[in-house]
Specification:
This protein is an alpha/beta fold. The chain has 15 helices and 18 strands. It is about 25% helix and about 15% strand.
Length: about 525
């Protein structure tokens, strides 16, 4: 493959806290990740994205950062991080690190100083402090995680802004210290060999300078997304990413080659999303449409067309995702342990055949469903707490992984360890990785087969995708002499002419069953291109 690596790579998201525990404290750590890197290399991914492992009070499990240039002792230390990066590179795996520029932790030295200072002190200017309206907050903005977006400083008339939890005060990017600090943070990790950054809440950073209410001040809470136009997507944000792009481009000439910026940009129309992936800004932005559409051919096609159009418009590369640490697991979204599992396998077969980059959330390759029945007393997500339990939050997709059928934690921790930080359900034993490695019909083996074929056939490259004419509930496209078909309807459909090279599940007839899909290599006449419908 001659294209830049980031344009076609498959990146595996490691939620460090729940991946593998090496020291028996019930919390995943960097040594645990390092020990499982051969598993990821064998799976066929090209790199990993590490969720935040910086020092943190863990109000939002690492997305509240106290020190951006160190490692939280629960996860290890900088030597452990360096060893992880070195071993990943030895195995041919890239390493991306989460960077969180919109907010920090209330224990960050800057915020500790700001709280101790009097109103009007320059130390408060690195954040958003404002006088309230009597006993009410400065405006009606609501937190994405529920409740007001403001917390009052005890004994004063001032409040501070937090678009997430009160433990995550928003930084004021109009203060020169903030961009200066983050430029140093990027260089610190680039110098340690990271291959790029996933940028959390990338459309944040700047707020409306007047902190105006606007028409829908509570939109973020209602949608649990970045919907308040005065709190997100201010025009100044693009200058930040132009500066960051210049920094990572300085490192592109090292032995590691290109370093990449991948943005989590949500709540925006496609025209605004395109601004973030212009040639001098971020390399990529996640395409989240497939996280939200049902298992339906027409919805898939429209989402794929939007992603391909964005890439064509901007020169970026599509960046496809089916799951992540903020979303109900794909198996559960698609219908549960049986029906949802079939559909999830077919959906990943579809995803693996698309041009561009693919991001895989840990455990999806095992076919893990959501742990919906997690007891309330074990739920740790601030969304659950801040909504009074009205929203279950994201704990159900963050349960520590099952590696083996033995042991009290299914191999997540060593024998005799403390209980995992979130309890695992008994049915996890049916999804553990070791048995799936030996089962040719398992979801893990399907992922491995698809990723190896994707690499061998160079499907990630920016080569044409041609839609083929099919019934309404069938999605079919060609990539060269390969045809991908996914049947989302209720009835079997005829298979394409050609040799079946991989299927989402076994079938015995000549027809493709419902909730299934496959890849065929065409050996006879080529299927007809889709007719234009007027």
């Amino acid at each position: 493959m001659t294209e830049a690596w980031w344009r076609h790579s498959v990146i595996y998201q490691v939620y460090v806290r729940s991946f593998a525990d090496s020291n028996g404290d019930g919390i995943g750590d960097l040594k645990g990740v390092t020990g499982r890197l051969p598993y990821l290399a064998d799976l066929g991914v090209d790199g990993i994205w590490l969720t935040p492992c910086y020092p943190s009070p863990q109000y939002d499990h690492g997305y509240d950062i106290e020190n951006h240039t160190d490692i939280d002792p629960a996860y290890g230390d900088l030597d452990d991080f360096d060893q992880l990066v070195a071993e990943a590179h030895r195995l041919g795996l890239r390493v991306l690190l989460d960077v969180v520029p919109n907010h920090c932790a209330i224990t960050h030295p800057w915020f500790v100083e700001a709280l101790a200072a009097e109103p009007g002190n320059p130390a408060r200017e690195r954040f958003h402090f404002a006088d309230g309206d009597g006993d009410a907050p400065p405006n009606g903005w609501r937190s994405m995680f529920g409740g007001p977006a403001w917390t009052r400083v005890p004994g004063t008339s001032q409040w501070y802004l937090h678009l997430f939890t009160p433990g995550q005060p928003d930084c004021n990017w109009r203060h020169p210290d903030v961009p200066e600090m983050f430029a140093k943070v990027l260089r610190f990790w680039l110098d340690r060999g990271v291959d790029g950054f996933r940028i959390d809440a990338a459309q944040g950073l700047f707020k409306h300078p007047e902190l105006a209410d606007g028409d829908e001040p509570g939109a973020d809470e209602l949608t649990r997304d970045a919907a308040n136009p005065n709190a997100w997507n201010q025009p100044e944000v693009h200058e930040v990413y132009r500066g960051w792009r210049a920094i990572v481009d300085e490192y592109a000439h090292s032995d590691l080659g290109d370093r990449v910026l991948v943005g989590e940009v949500t709540g925006l129309a496609q025209a605004h999303l395109a601004d973030y992936v212009r040639a001098d800004e971020m390399h990529q932005a996640f395409l989240f449409d497939l996280l939200h559409v049902p298992f339906e051919a027409g919805e898939y096609r429209r989402a794929i067309d939007r992603g391909l159009a964005l890439a064509a418009q901007t020169g970026s590369a599509p960046t496809w995702v089916l799951g992540n640490h903020d979303t109900t697991r794909v198996v559960t979204r698609y219908g549960g342990a049986s029906l949802g599992a079939e559909r999830a396998r077919a959906a990943f077969l579809l995803l693996a055949a698309l041009p561009g980059a693919v991001y895989v959330y840990q455990g999806d390759e095992l076919g893990l469903p959501e742990y919906i029945d997690l007891p309330d007393e074990h739920r740790a997500d601030p969304i659950f707490r801040r909504t009074g339990g009205r929203q279950l939050g994201r704990d159900g997709c963050r349960i520590p992984l099952p590696w083996t059928s033995e042991g009290t934690s299914y191999g997540f921790s060593p024998d005799g360890a403390q209980a995992p930080w979130l309890p695992q359900p008994p049915w996890f034993a049916a999804y553990e990785a070791d048995s799936q490695q030996a089962d040719s019909a398992s979801t893990l083996r399907l992922y491995r087969d698809l990723l190896r074929l994707r690499r061998d056939l160079e499907l990630g490259l920016d080569t044409p995708l041609t839609w083929l004419d099919q019934p309404p509930h069938v999605l079919t496209f060609a990539r060269g002499d390969l045809v991908c078909l996914v049947n989302t309807g209720p009835d079997p459909v005829p298979a394409p002419d050609g040799d079946l090279i991989v299927a989402s599940r076994p079938w015995t007839s000549a027809a493709v069953p419902p909730n299934s899909g496959g890849w065929w290599r065409m050996t006879r006449s080529r299927p007809r291109p889709a007719r234009l419908r007027r």
